[in-house]
## 1
Amino acid sequence: MIKIFLKSIMFSLMLLSISPIVAQELLQKKEAVTIAMENNFDIQLSNNNVDVAMNNASVENSRYLPSLSGTAGGSYSNTEGSVTQKSGEENEFENNETQSLNASIGLNYTIFDGFGRSNTYKKLKENYRISELQARQMVETTILNIFTSYYEIARLTQDVTNQKQTLNISRIRLQRAQYNFDYGQGSQLDILNAEVDYNNDSITYLTNTQLLANEKRNLNLLLGRDVSIDFSVDTTLTYNDQLLYETLLVHSKENNVTILQQESAMKNANYDIKSVGSNAIPKLNLNANYGWNENYLGATSFINKSSSVGPSVGATLSWNIYDGGSTRIQKQNAQIALDNQSINLEKQKLNIERNLSNAWTAYQTALFVKDAQEKNLQTAQTNFDRRVDQYKLGQISSIEFRQAQLNLLNAQLALNQAKYSAKNAELAVLQISGDLNQAQF
């Protein structure tokens, strides 16, 4: 039964070893970012929101430009009836036709509105900046997600390579146990133990190969492309050894996207106060019109026809002297909103400082773990090399050899995990400080 299962596993492994023969693209890190910037769905939605905010912040939406309108109309009537004059004479009429035609073009312009439109326009500009910051935040989040997935693929790639080497060692061990038994130098138990270990290594190898394929599909989704595209990744890592906590803390207060959004929100709250205040300031509007009128008055009128054409100009000064206290209440509420934004800004600054401190500690710990795991791997490799020689000479049992083999594999897996965890921690620090655009991927 074990031999049947073993053959099945070996057949599956053979298929997996054949599939990579198909050409795989090497997805470079910069290329992944470029593809995501063009195709990622969340980034596309954010860019569309920026376009909407840009349209809203244009001068055409600011009420600074005059409005121009044209009108035209006409009417016709055909009536019958009677007219009684002062002398008492009564005259009847029928088919009394009257017509009226008119056309005009009018210009309206607000010369001064108490600085209301000025503050509204500034707020629209600030909303555009907020939308850009939101888009930047989405880009940063997407980049972090992309590299979390990218580095996970790199880790799994190296894990699969290490597990394949372990699998080959287990296969050689199984063959050796079979040879020893055939020549009377081993027992059936040695073969069974070797078979179990080989089967377990095969299952682990197949499982991680499947995890690797799944993670590639996840990254393809983040890149906004066909999820079935196969590719390989660059497994090299570069760490930034020039990072200083004090510098990062200063940058976080200046460049962190959350703080920048909160500062823009404070500016908008201040514009709201000024906009409300403009309600109590007089407003001056200018209107100009050029019109044409022509009327056919019919038989009952002393005048058969009248017409007029020409311009007219007017100005209107309005002043809301007292509105029952509504403006005062609105201004008080706007001031409270500004105070709340100020409180939120201070809260966000403390949150960012806390988050940066936590991220920095995690990063330093991750670097220490990485260095420690590198030393552990050196020790495990040295121990395994010695155990290989001892096993060949028959100085240790297969169980002792297996333990050394597992120790080496675990050290390799632990180092892979530590390396990419440290890199992800570094990127998290740079995002909080607002320096993700300077990261060395």
## 2
Amino acid sequence: MRLVFVSPYFYPAWQYGGTPRAAYELARALARRGHQLTVFTTDSAGVSRLDNDGRGAPFTRQFDGLEAHYYPNVSNWLAFKHRIFLPLGMSRSIRATLKNSDVVHIHEFRSMLTIQAWCEAKRLGLPYVISPHGGLQYLGKAIPKRIFDRLWGRRVLGKAAAVAVVSHIESEDAADFNVHPSRIHLLPNPIPVEQFETLPPLGT
């Protein structure tokens, strides 16, 4: 299958916590299974390519059997401090890639990238999966989150082919958004088992 991941942060942006690592491990596992995997993300890891004028420019990297496209944020300070991701020039590329794809998997819920991917998937009639990664609850910044949900969030969840939750608690959170139980699927965070093949002595 031709799969597209859309995430505001991806490898090697480990400073953003578990979400980019979970998305990366899932992406490379799917690539190992033979799927064609393309990732759209931002330069939130602090790694960027400069164009001839010294400005941030989109760039592509290939690793672990997948292809990742990184787009510069308007401000990585806004991205890290306030989770406001505004990538430059991404919409047109997403549109062109999704035309030849089978499924888009959106990581994170309340993000401008989520809106971009949702709009393009809806326009093309393309099924999409969304992984909120524990982000459905109103823990901090409740007012902006409720505004987002009223404008976009509930429609994004309501039209998703599947909502991938990491726990039974998040399954209940999705149900609170009126997502039908048949579209809620438990997908725990993937673990790179090869890191645990050689263990220290018991009790260490």
## 3
Amino acid sequence: RDLLNKVVTAILHLQDGRLTVYPGGYDAFEKQRAERAAQLAAAKASQDAQRARLEDYVARNSARASTAKQAQSRAKMLAKMQPIAAMMEDPSLSFDFPSPDEMRPPLITLDLAAVGYDEKPILQRLNLRIDPDDRIALLGRNGNGKTTLARLLAGQLAPMDGEMNVSGRMRVGYFTQYQVEELPADSTPLELMTRAMPGKTPAAVRAQLGRFGFSGPRAESQTATLSGGERARLALALVTRDAPHMLILDEPTNHLDVDAREALVQALNDYAGAVILISHDRHMVELTADRLVLVDGGTAKDYPGSIEDYIDFVLGRNQPKADAGKGGAAAKPKGGAKSREEMKALQKAVSEAEAAVAKAEARLAAIDAARAGSGKPAADLAGLGMAERG
């Protein structure tokens, strides 16, 4: 979403077999599409009311000789009336997480815990507390251990050191991007959900699928025929089948388009349990998480800044300057004077280039004026014919 806002100048939108061009970035497109949907809905409501009035008149007056012609005229109007179709609801935008029963806080506490693989710790000195209403985004560069921490919280890894206390009744739903790729191609959503919910009635199984847009024939489609976004929704439906108290999402948007991501954001905000989110989608993090945890330097700690501060941290922008009292002038990097001289030389070169461009633009304007015959041409252009001036 942020990429589209910063890069594109128009959006070409395909829906129901039709292409529509919207000028501007993604936010402008979303606003214009919402306005268009509202206009279509209003126009359809008005047409439906008009159609009902005409049908009522025809039904009441067709049999009477005095009004038969008027009724026939209105019947022709009805036949020629082109129905206005409102924007169809997209079933691929359906996300509805079942809400869990209430639990007393905390769900999980880590006290100087360590976790890793093959007796080699990846993260150490972990001190975290997760409550039922937490919305936490795990930040950190790839390879720093975000997924390792997620697996610890999901119970897939045991702590190698320290303590980890987990509420005994807590249910966890853990979604990974690999689950989407590992869905059996020769099964249907209905078959997969039936196996995942043993003992549940067919109605309960279909209700869970319906929460994620798999209703009617869609529930009986072969998984191999589903799009990437549909498979992601099916994986989410499977991991939330027992209404987990904590939902851990590791890159949930990789297979989702922008509209589906927005629907997922809304569903997460409506969800009553705790959320642990790993995502490169800044828009999702900003709208979903109210707590940031930075996984860096072999540990994980609450990050006090905003997502904008974190981006500056990653890019090395706007960082606090070193204390001048710690070393004073000796602490300055070598070559500082040389760098200043190089900067002056660059600034001089830029000024000279800008002056050259201004001179060239003035010359071009004079030539254009001479070609157009407007005003008195410059002395060196006055004797030129129109062909020569071109």
